[in-house]
Input
Amino acid sequence: MNTNIWLYAGLVFGALSILAALATYRNVLQYDPGSARAQEIAGWIRAGASTYLKLLYNTLIAISIILGIILAVVFSGMEKQNHGLMTAAAFAFGALCSALAGWLGMKVAVEANVRTAVACKEGIPQGFNVAFKAGSVMGLAMVGVAVFGMSLLYLIWRDVEIILSFSFGASLLALLAKAGGGIYTKTADIAADLVGKVEVGIPEDDPRNPAVIADNVGDNVGDVAGMGADIFDSYVAAVVASMLLGASFFASGKVGIQYVLLPLLLCVIGIIATFIGLPFVRVGKDDKPGRALNFSTVFTCILFAVLSTIFFVVVNALSGGDPSKSLNWGALISTVAGLLIGVIIGFTTDYFTNDEHSPVRQVAKISGSGTGLTIITGFSYGLISIAPAIVGIVAAMITAYLSSQAFGLPGIYGVGLAAVGMLSLTGSVVSNDAYGPIVDNAKGIAEMSGMSHEVVDRADVLDSAGNTAKAITKGFSISAAALTVLAMFAAYSEVISTYSQKDFMLDLLDPLVLAGVLLGCVVPALFSALLMLSVTKNAFTMIEEIRRQFKAEPGILKGTVLPDYTQCVAIASSGALKALIGPAFLAVVFPLLVGFILGPGALGGFLGGAIFTGVVFALLMSNAGGLWDNGKKYIEAGNFGGSGSEAHKAAVVGDTVGDPFKDTAGPSLNTLITVMSLVSSLFAPLIAKWHIFG
Amino acid sequence: MNTNIWLYAGLVFGALSILAALATYRNVLQYDPGSARAQEIAGWIRAGASTYLKLLYNTLIAISIILGIILAVVFSGMEKQNHGLMTAAAFAFGALCSALAGWLGMKVAVEANVRTAVACKEGIPQGFNVAFKAGSVMGLAMVGVAVFGMSLLYLIWRDVEIILSFSFGASLLALLAKAGGGIYTKTADIAADLVGKVEVGIPEDDPRNPAVIADNVGDNVGDVAGMGADIFDSYVAAVVASMLLGASFFASGKVGIQYVLLPLLLCVIGIIATFIGLPFVRVGKDDKPGRALNFSTVFTCILFAVLSTIFFVVVNALSGGDPSKSLNWGALISTVAGLLIGVIIGFTTDYFTNDEHSPVRQVAKISGSGTGLTIITGFSYGLISIAPAIVGIVAAMITAYLSSQAFGLPGIYGVGLAAVGMLSLTGSVVSNDAYGPIVDNAKGIAEMSGMSHEVVDRADVLDSAGNTAKAITKGFSISAAALTVLAMFAAYSEVISTYSQKDFMLDLLDPLVLAGVLLGCVVPALFSALLMLSVTKNAFTMIEEIRRQFKAEPGILKGTVLPDYTQCVAIASSGALKALIGPAFLAVVFPLLVGFILGPGALGGFLGGAIFTGVVFALLMSNAGGLWDNGKKYIEAGNFGGSGSEAHKAAVVGDTVGDPFKDTAGPSLNTLITVMSLVSSLFAPLIAKWHIFG
Output
């Protein structure tokens, strides 16, 4: 089989996925947008989101242009012709693709929220249908632009290093969108809760709260644009890492050319599995929406495994035993092993964050004895939850390595495929992720526009389902990101070996490597702290503003005067953007400083250190945050005293702490280590030549 | 100079240090123990502490016997004659020395507390004098038994591997004493505060609180026996690691025999510096006690640097240029660099935990806007505080490595010496550490026995000074432990190289090494979680018991009936002991499983991973805990609304969360990684021969 066909398949199915996203978008728009009042509220949210997005994208365009010029200049010194311009173009293209997919996801989310609320008047299945369709726009768009973009670039330049630059552009944009969105959403959420619920005692999503629109905008910019990108950057990076490894082993004659493109083709199979799987996601009259979402994950997973196996069988049958055309079975085992272990890790995460199991209940129970114990216990379970996920990551890595090696493929290439396998579900996972904030918004709009209790309750059922699905996909994304950066770590070493023309080792007993690891360990901690301090600082400002409005105009609390929503929206927007400088520096400039000063060994160690603590903190923060959130909800469901009890007050504090843990710092850490790995691999040829020590 | 003289110097100065401790102990006993009422209260605390210590030591003797037998059997298979018995004997001796020093420290603390309170009637300098003397008993005893024990063992067997077993015994005991004590003290502290202060509104140290005696016992078993051991195990391990490296490089002809014993002799110089420094620690009439404690640290540090330099000059003058007798200047630079950077790190820790700087004030300020923000902000500053300490550790490591290498010594040996240099202050640091709980207890006794306000206030001044000194010594201990385990990490590799007779590498690109690192990263997280969950679980039980007593006997709160103190003491004791099984397994059995199953490379990676996240979590937890504690105190001093305000309530929750962070999990992590490194190095000869993979 000519592997060019694989590239064309990538172009075609990538384009189809984008078209499917656009068609679904148009379909969503045809649902009833509801009463004038509902539309007015949705309009405020839409306007707030647009304002922020415009500001964000202006900033990002500026950053992209500057970085693009730097890339063009720096890489023009390489032997390859026009390498600088090509690198810059691919970077800009990657950033553009990532931005487009995020923008489309947001665009549909702010239209779908009100339509979901209206559809809930008919019933839960109808509401679910609108929200899930809207979510899948983002899922389809993201995998579409990724696969189309990568195929196109490879078809033109036949150089994986150019795709690396594409991946860097996409990931950097995802990082900034996610970090900014994460800060925005939690600033608004915490401020709205602390003054609204705790100080003046009005319910959530009450239109009298001046921060209520900012809070709902936050769900969109943080959870749709931000969280959708959570897994997108890993997706592209996993493919690039595997392609880099494949290209390097092809160059040294260890594997055939087909292994360079296999990762891309596995994505095509993933798109096909998603196409087949999506229409099956439906909620029957008495079904639970949560089950439908999980079914979507598991079903797509099985489809992918079956389709991949068929593909391997067909290719090998057609190859007639020619090793340059056939595919190694070790590659199939590695891919499927990664996929299966990814799903298992996702479900173990559920154990720590689902209120049907002991951790959440323990935290809820101990909340009655004091807020301090709520925090300590939740934090401790968060620490424990690191263990099963890391054991899973190790199991996936070792299985993939050994099974590939057993069949004569380089083991580390198998690890890359395991990451690609785990991420083949990206379309489905992003759809589930984007569903969450849409139903959350729908609930808010239903309440604010005075729809009936029944409608609000239905929207609430859809919302809880989103939370459970989110916990599972989150454990999944972190593991996938970890496996991806491990593959990228190996790819970095291969690039260094190639360009320095000697075997590259990362010996922990070498003091420069060890120094690199220790410095790398610091980055995720610093990064998380910067994001969370921005949240508390901005929330503090917003709290002052809300208190000021209540004081200046007593009519607001009486419900006779509308609060000034734009002030809170402005505070959240400008605060989030200002906060991006430090994190961007840590992700991009710090690795380069380490590399050019302390040398490639130290940079390798640095990446390792960042991966180690990055994964640990990401798991800790995401799971502890989810656990506190559900502990609070478990009490609100009437356990241990219910709403208003001392236990509930303690649990609310736990939830507030968990908010920036799980929605700001935790998910951004995945992207942080991805961006760090990508920038290191991209600059590896330069660092291999020029560095001060090492 | 004959290096035998160095060993005799070790014996003599070790013995002198022990004698000085005993003499000081007798001297403390001669102070006035106060009124019958004060003595009665002190008697309860003494009895509670004895009960717990008896239980603890019974458990520890049982564990030591079992482990001793295992060691005797396992190591009898080695080529060396009687190696099994010698290993077991050294292990038991190490455990005994560690237990003795801890026991003596406790013994004097429970006598000194009441005497300090009584001395405060005369004035702050008098109270300081008693407490600091009592603290120095522990400091002198610990360095004494360590240096005496190591010198004696080497004099008899001339084999550093036997001293390694001594170090393992000492560290394992320190770990269990510290973890158990840490759980005990925070169980009682949290339970006493949550019911006493928060629920029924009686002040701290009120005799009506059934947990008040358990709380004061906790200060002794947790902070004296536990915290004193915080640095002791690093002290022994740093010497052993350097001796192991020296012996290995001597065997390969890279260094002379004098470098095997140099680390021990540096300890002798440290003892001499402490002897000279201690009498200078005095508080004048208008001096601050905190300044006196810091002066002690800095003065001893300068003395040590001067004495070491003189020693090097004298040895080199006497050697007549004979390289087998002279000392390399690189060794001196490494030692002093370690010492200086240690002190610098200690003072940067102060920045994050002292209320004169921005972090504590920011947390205090934001507390007015909600408890959640207090936790997030404090946690974030804790995350940031990791950075300067790790940069310091890296700087110390690189400086020592390069300066030793520049003078022709193996660089990694220099890293070992830097750790020894940093820890040469151990006598002085442990004295400062033990001072804290003594004055804390003194304050409690003064309040409970109804001494005048003036006396209580003076005791309070002494107490705050203890807190500030503690923050500095804590940053210092973590860095010293980190540098120690890095040296031990290298020592482990040397042992593996020697016994497997090939060059040993820890290549991060080897999947087994990487798997080891990832698994190692999990251990500190799991370990911390187990300790903290034990605290919350036991505190929950104790809270129920306190509530039960208040309900069953209303006379308790009226002050007419004494509560049953023994119940709370029993809950704290048995709870703490039961909680030690999991952590002991993690520290001892888990590394061996990794080593014998996944091989020496994986175990090396495992140690690395545990060191990386261990240091990160230790710094995070200790500093965030200290910061919350002082944030609360800053508000209590009348800022941002003062005691009773909303800000204060939030800060109290922060303090409760910080308690197990800084006094249970954080400080135990140092010892955890020390024990893991020691057990791995000890079993390295066996693991090099027998393992399944790798």
